[in-house]
């Protein structure tokens, strides 16, 4: 192996984790000129069926213990980097990072940094109720003097239903329209860009939108590949 493996803690949900894996492969070809088998990164995808914490944290302790166990398991392997294919799971990031012997990459940090380079002053955030209510993105963006605009309580309930539909494999045209309405609402409130702060959302959000759309999966994938190939974006 030319470089140490990339490890991904996923399964929250499984299809979004598969999307991250596919994105890593596609971007290895597009940006890092992978052609033969040994040009591609070694990837460890740990898909963990943790209990649901999309909208409430009643199961969060059980989920945290399961994730901790997997991080400890991965400590036995020397990795180029480790990350999670789930924005909401970053509620546990600090606790997991503290027990990891490998470089742990935060999706929240990387997306926020990426947005800051675009010089946006106000950004809309779409994600699970737990992600939005915890202020994960809002606090990071504030460090770059970026103001956050978040969905209303009613819009959060709609977002949750859309995300749950995607989780169970249902990508409904009407749900896509609902996402556009929420995006338009954030835009009217001053958003200059939209963060897809849930890894399910890129699986259904339209390919084109009036504002810059920050796909958390795409951004994380590029950072992980840069760590693996030890070079900047081509």
Which terms summarize this structure?
single chain; 234 residues; alpha/beta; Rossmann fold; 2 domains; four-stranded parallel beta sheet; 9 helices; 46% helix; globular
Structural commentary:
By secondary structure, the chain is α/β, with parallel strands linked by helices. It has 2 domains: 6-107 and 218-229, 3-Layer(aba) Sandwich (Rossmann fold); 109-215, 3-Layer(aba) Sandwich (Rossmann fold), CATH 3.40.50. The chain has helices spanning 14-32, 60-74, 93-97, 107-117, 129-134, 136-142, 153-167, 173-188, 216-229, and strands at residues 6-10, 43-47, 81-84, 104-105, 122-126, 147-149, 193-196, 212-215. The protein has a 4-stranded parallel sheet with strand order 2-1-3-4, with helices on both faces. Strands 6-5-7-8 form a 4-stranded parallel sheet, sandwiched between helices. It starts with 5 loop residues before the first strand and ends in a 5-residue tail after the last helix. The model has no long low-confidence stretch (mean pLDDT 94).
Describe the structure concisely for a colleague.
This protein is of the alpha/beta class. The chain contains 9 helices and 8 strands. It is 46% helix and 14% strand.
Structural class: alpha/beta
State the distance separating the first and last CA atoms.
22 Å
Unreliable stretches (pLDDT < 50, length at least 5) are none
> Per CATH, which architecture of the largest domain?
3-Layer(aba) Sandwich
Biggest sheet details: 4 strands, parallel
What order do the strands of the largest sheet run in, or round the barrel if closed?
Answer: 2-1-3-4
What's the tally of helices? Answer: 9
- How many structural domains are formed by the residues? 2
**Nearest-integer average pLDDT:** 94
User: What is the string of SSEs from the N terminus onward?
Assistant: EHEHEHEHEHHEHHEEH
CATH first level of the largest domain:
Alpha Beta
Instruction: Supply Rg.
Output: 17 Å
How much strand content do the residues show? 5-15%
> What percent of residues adopt helix (DSSP H or I)?
40-55%
């Amino acid at each position: 192996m030319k470089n140490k493996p990339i490890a991904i803690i996923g399964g929250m949900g499984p299809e979004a984790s598969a999307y991250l894996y596919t994105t890593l492969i596609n971007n290895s070809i597009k940006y890092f000129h992978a052609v033969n088998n040994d040009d591609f990164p070694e990837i460890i995808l740990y898909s963990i069926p943790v209990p649901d914490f999309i909208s409430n944290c009643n199961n969060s302790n059980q989920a945290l213990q399961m994730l901790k166990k997997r991080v400890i398991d991965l400590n036995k392997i020397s990795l180029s980097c480790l990350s999670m294919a789930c924005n909401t799971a970053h509620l546990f990031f600090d606790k997991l990072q503290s027990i990891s012997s490998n470089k742990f990459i935060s999706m929240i940090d990387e997306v926020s940094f990426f947005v800051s380079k675009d010089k946006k002053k106000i950004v809309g955030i779409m994600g699970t109720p737990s992600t939005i209510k915890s202020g994960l993105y809002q606090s990071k963006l504030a460090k770059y003097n970026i103001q956050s605009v978040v969905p209303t309580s009613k819009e959060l309930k709609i977002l949750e239903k859309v995300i749950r539909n995607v989780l169970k494999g249902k990508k409904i045209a009407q749900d896509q329209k609902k996402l556009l309405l929420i995006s338009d609402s954030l835009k009217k409130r001053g958003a200059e860009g939209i963060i897809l702060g849930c890894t399910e959302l890129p699986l259904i959000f339209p390919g084109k939108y009036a504002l810059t759309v920050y796909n958390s999966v795409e951004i994380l994938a590029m950072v992980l590949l840069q760590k693996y190939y030890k070079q900047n974006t081509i």
